[in-house]
Write a structure and sequence with these properties.
By secondary structure, this protein is of the alpha+beta class. The chain has ten helices and 26 strands. The strands form seven sheets. Strands 6, 7, 8, 13, 14, 16, 17 and 22 form an eight-stranded mixed sheet that branches. It has a five-stranded antiparallel sheet with strand order 4-3-2-1-5. The chain is globular, with a radius of gyration of 22 Å. It starts with 28 loop residues before the first strand and ends with a strand.
Length: 424
């Protein structure tokens, strides 16, 4: 299908301020509600949410043969399950209706107040019902930094790392939407050379700058998905903050990997930016040496040029941006991640989420976690209020943002933010 919604010449009759994350070429999907409505499907355009339930109710989407009830669901899962051909056609249709050369919707002045909801009046909810969640470990820079800190710098990467996308099965139930605060977790940690562990609140709470893709199609148990097929299964992306309790993680991760240090919360942005919208921002990834096995070889451009940043705002103070990175740095790409995930016949579901792993770049200011930025606490980061951060403190507001930009077109994700509350 030709993706007409990506046409860089398109302009919308809905006002879109310069620098907005949500021009007509984006049109990400999300779930919202207002004081007067139940949760439903919306699309972001400028500073507005286009109500797709109302749009369908008024007949503007009849040709797509998607029941109106689909747009009244509290999650995107049912819509995504219609498949990429149908959802791509929906996005094209919305772009056509919002095009400043199309009068069909623009001139319906009596309907517009019900169709276009100001974002400030909309509460954004979890966009998908996450059935399963996998977290990868796919940034060579991040893996090298962590290996250097905790193991032999000469052998920072474990022997398997350049041969397969390392991942683990995470906790889907504790994935939350932007704006929900997180509670500092409690657990065991073993400090320094102490003989015995102690129990209490984590003293080394950290963020991890990640992105996550969401699947929209199932495969049967025992069947695998090739790198060539992967795009048919991927609906879109969100920003992902994989909160981590580093002191708890260091004590518990041997021999089976992360557990309580990770499963207390993960935060995502509310708007799902489609894989279609990100097509113009595909780039080549890093050269993979040694050559990967045949089932992991992927043709074409498989990485994405997406600018990312993380800000920390101490309570009562100004925000400081502590990290600027880019999704293009990922060593293992999404096609390889999905192919490896299913090569053993693992079945995936509509609404499953797959996080990238921490996205660190090649320079110290592009490291995607406090563990790296403050280098295991040895290089504290100054804050605007005169305090410093080696790890996150109670009251801190952590905000992640992301956008792709090319030829004057900016495709943004909005932000994912959360305040850290004290342990109970």
């Amino acid at each position: 299908m030709i993706i007409t919604a990506n046409d860089p010449s398109l302009k919308s009759w809905v006002e879109v301020r310069p620098g907005s994350d949500f021009p007509i070429q984006n049109l990400p999907f999300g779930i919202f509600q207002t004081a007067d409505t139940q949760p439903r499907v919306g699309v972001a355009i400028g500073d507005y949410v286009l109500d797709l339930k109302m749009l369908a109710h008024e007949g503007f989407l009849d040709a797509l043969l998607i029941p109106e009830s689909v747009f009244a669901q509290p999650y995107l899962n049912e819509l995504m399950a219609f498949g990429k051909e149908k959802t791509s056609a929906l996005r094209n249709r919305i772009a056509d209706l919002l095009n400043d050369e199309n009068e069909d919707l623009r001139d319906e002045e009596d309907l517009l107040p019900d169709l276009l909801v100001p974002m400030k009046e909309a509460k954004m909810l979890m966009p998908v019902l996450v059935r399963d969640y996998t977290d990868f470990y796919s940034s060579k820079e991040h893996a090298t930094n962590v290996g250097t800190m905790f193991r032999d710098p000469e052998n920072a990467l474990l022997p398997n790392w350049k041969h397969l996308p390392v991942g683990y099965h995470g906790r889907a139930s504790s994935i939350i939407v932007s704006g929900e605060p997180i509670r500092r977790p409690k657990g065991q940690r073993k400090d320094g050379d102490k003989d015995q562990p102690v129990f209490g609140p984590s003293g080394r709470l950290d963020f991890e700058l990640e992105m996550a893709f969401i699947t929209c199609k199932e495969n049967k148990l025992g069947e695998s998905i090739s790198t060539a097929q992967a795009d048919d299964y991927i609906f879109g992306f969100v920003l992902f903050n994989d909160w981590s309790a580093r002191d708890m993680q260091a004590w518990e991760y041997v021999p089976l990997g992360p557990f309580l240090a990770k499963n207390f919360a993960s935060s995502i942005s509310p708007w799902v930016v489609t894989l279609d919208a990100l097509g113009p921002f595909r780039v080549a990834g890093p050269k993979q040496e040694p050559e990967v096995l045949s089932y992991l070889q992927a043709e074409g451009l498989s990485n994405f040029d997406i600018n990312l940043e993380v800000g920390i705002q101490p309570k009562g103070s100004a925000e400081k941006v502590v990290c600027r990175s880019n999704f293009k740095h990922m060593y293992w790409n999404i096609r390889q991640q999905l192919a490896h995930h299913t090569i053993n016949g693992c079945n995936i579901n509509v609404g499953d989420m797959y996080a990238s792993g921490t996205i660190s770049g090649p320079t110290p200011d592009s490291y995607g976690s406090m563990l790296e930025l403050a280098w295991k606490g040895t290089k504290p980061i100054p804050m605007p209020d005169g305090s410093t951060r080696s790890f996150l403190q109670d009251g801190d507001m952590v905000t992640m943002r992301g956008f792709a930009e090319k030829d004057g077109i900016r495709i943004g994700f909005g932000e994912v933010k959360a305040e850290i509350l004290p342990a109970t």
